[in-house]
Design goal:
CATH architecture of the largest domain: 4-Layer Sandwich
Number of strands: 15
Largest sheet: 7 strands, mixed
Shape: globular
Helix content: 25-40%
Number of helices: 12
Radius of gyration: 22 Å
Structural class: alpha/beta
Length: about 375
């Protein structure tokens, strides 16, 4: 549970999947007012594809939190994550909500407990905070490990800030940040039914975000937070041993670069090659070719990079000699980069993914049973 005594300006982005969990539908309705006091979330059960009983359970979660704080249920967002298609045992939440509220803390321990509570197959806690001009702060936590693919990712992301900002500016900042972070991360090609990125701003710092310069500075800081969390999700992909960053430069515009980078990061063959530390650059060109984005293969260059060094493997449309041993050493690191330059423009973008391992199949082969 997350609670602010002061009413917050609030904004959110949700899954694009046509099949949406009850928590998503309830929260979408509540966010129409642009104000929130609280979030109540459960893990272990997605409350998706559970019919009218699922909707009633999601609404009941909001009501339970609202009753405890004497606030309107419409100022409570609801989030769920876990197995799809299993009825939510709402009685367990009804019997525990008072204890949950009594356990709320405004210190680091309280934050850590909330972060741990939303984890499912995650193996690492994913959180970050930054300070912006005037001493205001933005903090965020995210869960996400599998069923992650744009747009957005299988994730619950809760962001808080103590700036004073309108709902309209907050929504614009969040949308920009999500487009450049969570919408550029992929683990396995599946977009979930429950995805949610939500931000609450309570104005407690007294720092205002009103004019264009203030909004730009806030948006950049929020983007930094979201990119950090997105990379942490990719690194914690189910069964993953490596974080893979794909950066495309030298194309017509940012959108073209984004499409190309996401296509490479999403390729199962590229991901498997990263797992095996195999410098199979042909798979990268192949993924670029079927992306639908415009680029000139004859002007394209590809290299691999990590803390072990950098090596070029493809230049101006053709292969170049390189040391397989050196490439393997570079690709054996936990964080690797695939660098692509198509030599045609100023467009640039990065996407984040992970390697595809045997353990991914093991985890998902018996996830439910």
């Amino acid at each position: 549970m997350i609670y602010s005594e002061k009413i917050c300006a609030a904004a959110a982005m949700f899954t694009t999947n046509r099949v949406q969990a009850a928590s998503v539908l309830v929260s979408q309705k509540h966010l129409m007012g642009g104000k929130l006091h609280a979030v109540i979330a459960n893990s272990g059960n997605a409350n998706a594809c559970t019919g009218e009983a699922g909707f009633a359970a999601a609404r009941r979660m909001a009501e339970l939190a609202a009753d405890e704080f004497a606030i309107s249920p419409e100022t409570v967002a609801v989030a769920s994550t876990g197995v799809i298609g299993v009825p939510l045992p709402i009685a367990a939440i009804e019997n525990s909500v008072e204890a949950l509220v009594n356990s709320l803390r405004g210190d680091e321990a309280g934050h850590a407990a909330a972060l741990e509570a939303i984890m499912t197959t995650d193996t690492r806690k994913k959180e970050v905070s930054v300070e912006i001009d005037g001493g205001a702060r933005i903090g965020g936590m995210v869960k996400g490990s599998g069923m992650i693919h744009p747009n957005m990712a299988t994730m619950l992301c809760f962001l808080t800030t103590d700036v004073s900002i309108s709902r309209e500016l907050l929504q614009a900042s969040l949308q920009r940040a999500v487009m450049r972070s969570f919408n550029r991360v992929t683990v396995d090609g599946d977009t979930s039914t429950n995805d949610m990125a939500l931000i609450m701003a309570n104005g407690a710092s007294g720092v205002t975000v009103i004019d264009r310069a203030e909004h730009e500075a806030f948006s950049l800081a929020l983007e930094q937070v979201c990119v950090t969390l997105a990379k942490a999700m990719a690194r914690d992909g189910e069964g993953a041993t490596k974080l893979v960053t794909v950066t495309v430069n030298g194309v017509a515009d940012e959108k073209t670069a984004e499409v190309l980078a996401k296509s490479v990061a999403s390729s199962s063959l590229v991901k498997a090659a990263c797992f095996g530390a195999d410098a199979n650059w042909g798979r990268i060109l192949c993924a670029m070719g079927y992306s639908g984005a415009e680029f000139d293969p004859d002007r394209t260059n590809v290299s691999f990079k990590s803390k072990a060094g950098e090596i070029a493997v493809f230049s101006n449309g053709g292969p170049i000699p390189f040391s397989e041993d050196a490439a393997k050493k570079i690709l054996s690191e936990e964080e690797i980069e695939i660098l692509i330059n198509a030599g045609e423009g100023n467009g640039s973008a990065s996407a984040w993914g992970c390697d595809l391992t045997y353990d991914y199949v093991k985890i998902n082969g018996d996830y439910r049973s």
